[in-house]
């Protein structure tokens, strides 16, 4: 096959490209230029939007012995990922930009361009595995290395995208990938993994949002209240808070029981942030919209699990498909779950699909 290897400049994508070539594919390395101004996003080894990363990817391609190109997708990335991130936070929701990037950029814009150029598939360094079932459907499964499994952020891929995807690292623990990179002479063998959101320069989401939203920033200040409505403090923008947040509330009045308070609700229209005890964060039901099914949508009630964060726990669940989404009953309550997050649905190790959480149902307290 003719394969585009998406090379971020890190160790995982470099080894994935090398393995794709070793498997006999005709491989071309491609680095995605996602920032209009690379210096304005990240520096060093924390992200995947820097000049250093582009140079690291080029050097790796030279060692592997494959052609290398840079594709400028900065405008598409800004519109589909960065703008979406800003607007979701402005509306009091908590988005996951990595899922949006996979959905809109790496396995949509990149795959569309690759297919148009005559390539057959896109290979990435994600930790996940693909299998074909008895009916010929391509299934997405968790990786062997549970600590590095990235099937959650791939839960937005549909059947057509999976048919044109390769994940060469899914059967290998991360330490072995680093050892292999060193054996292959790849200088990125010891490069640290990227963390946080690639386009937030210092990991300070609130500060970045305040700067980038500018005049569009809604509700620059407002009250922080308890569940009775008593004002406990003042915030400097609802977009700086997420459901379940504990740190940085700077409340002037302690709770009567002395326990920490957590963000329970964010209301952008009234500029109100509500806080309360952790037990009031417990959720046992979710409503999801914008479904993305990896294969056929489940029929009836699916007894499976859901994952609600990129490296979060699995929760036993009953999933019922409804028009334009799904209703999810959590048999294991979850805490700090917010609209805008993704619920990725599993049956065993197989990804069934995902929905964007539109509403949550709190556990009824006695």
From TrEMBL:
GO terms for molecular function: ATP binding; tRNA binding; tRNA-uridine 2-sulfurtransferase activity. GO terms for biological process: tRNA wobble position uridine thiolation. Residues 213-276 form the tRNA-specific 2-thiouridylase MnmA-like central domain. Its EC number is 2.8.1.13. InterPro entries: MnmA-like, MnmA-like_C, MnmA-like_central, MnmA-like_central_sf, Rossmann-like_a/b/a_fold. The active site is at residues 101, 198. Residues 148-150 are annotated as: Interaction with tRNA. It comes from the Bacteria. The record marks 126, 341 as: Interaction with tRNA. Keywords: ATP-binding, Cytoplasm, Disulfide bond, Nucleotide-binding, RNA-binding, Transferase, tRNA processing, tRNA-binding. Pfam families: tRNA_Me_trans, tRNA_Me_trans_C, tRNA_Me_trans_M. ATP binds at residues 6-13, 32, 125. Residues 285-357 form the tRNA-specific 2-thiouridylase MnmA-like C-terminal domain. It is an enzyme of class 2 (transferase). The keyword Ligase does not apply. Signal peptide: none annotated. It is found in: Cytoplasm. GO terms for cellular component: cytoplasm. It catalyses: S-sulfanyl-L-cysteinyl-[protein] + uridine(34) in tRNA + AH2 + ATP = 2-thiouridine(34) in tRNA + L-cysteinyl-[protein] + A + AMP + diphosphate + H(+). Disulfide bonds join 101-198. Catalyzes the 2-thiolation of uridine at the wobble position (U34) of tRNA, leading to the formation of s(2)U34. PANTHER family: MITOCHONDRIAL TRNA-SPECIFIC 2-THIOURIDYLASE 1 (PTHR11933:SF5), TRNA 5-METHYLAMINOMETHYL-2-THIOURIDYLATE -METHYLTRANSFERASE (PTHR11933). Belongs to the MnmA/TRMU family. This is tRNA-specific 2-thiouridylase MnmA. It comes from Nocardioides luteus. The lineage of its organism: Bacteria, Bacillati, Actinomycetota, Actinomycetes, Propionibacteriales.
């Amino acid at each position: 096959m003719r394969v585009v290897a998406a090379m971020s400049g890190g160790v995982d994508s470099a080894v994935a490209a090398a393995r794709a070539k070793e498997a006999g594919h005709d491989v071309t390395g491609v680095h995605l230029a996602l920032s209009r101004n690379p210096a304005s996003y990240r520096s060093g080894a924390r992200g995947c939007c820097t000049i250093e990363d582009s140079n690291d990817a080029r050097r790796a391609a030279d060692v592997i012995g494959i052609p290398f190109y840079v594709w400028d997708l900065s405008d598409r990335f800004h519109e589909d990922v960065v703008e979406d991130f800003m607007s979701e936070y402005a509306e009091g929701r908590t988005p996951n930009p990595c899922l949006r990037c996979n959905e809109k950029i790496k396995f949509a814009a990149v795959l569309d361009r690759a297919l148009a150029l005559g390539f057959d598939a896109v290979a990435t360094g994600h930790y996940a595995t693909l299998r074909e079932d008895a009916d010929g459907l391509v299934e997405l499964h968790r990786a062997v290395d549970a600590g590095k499994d990235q099937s959650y952020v791939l839960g937005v891929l549909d059947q057509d995208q999976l048919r044109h995807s390769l994940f060469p690292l899914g059967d290998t623990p991360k330490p072995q990938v680093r050892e292999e990179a060193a054996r292959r002479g790849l200088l990125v063998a010891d490069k640290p993994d990227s963390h946080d959101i690639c386009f937030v320069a210092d990991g300070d989401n609130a500060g970045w949002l305040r700067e980038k939203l500018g005049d569009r920033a809604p509700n620059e200040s407002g009250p922080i209240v308890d569940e009775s409505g008593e004002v406990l403090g003042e915030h400097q923008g609802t977009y700086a808070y997420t459901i379940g947040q504990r740190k940085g509330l700077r409340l002037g009045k302690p709770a009567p029981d002395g326990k920490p308070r957590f963000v329970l609700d964010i209301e952008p229209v009234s500029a109100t942030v509500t806080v309360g005890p952790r037990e009031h964060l417990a959720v046992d039901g979710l409503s999801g919209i914008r479904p993305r099914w990896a294969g056929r949508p489940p029929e009836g009630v699916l007894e499976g699990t859901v994952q609600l964060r990129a490296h979060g726990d699995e929760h036993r669940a009953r999933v019922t498909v409804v028009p334009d989404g799904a209703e999810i009953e959590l048999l294991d309550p979850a805490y700090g779950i917010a609209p805008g997050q993704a619920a990725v649905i599993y049956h065993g190790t197989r990804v069934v699909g995902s929905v964007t959480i539109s509403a949550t149902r709190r556990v009824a307290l006695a």
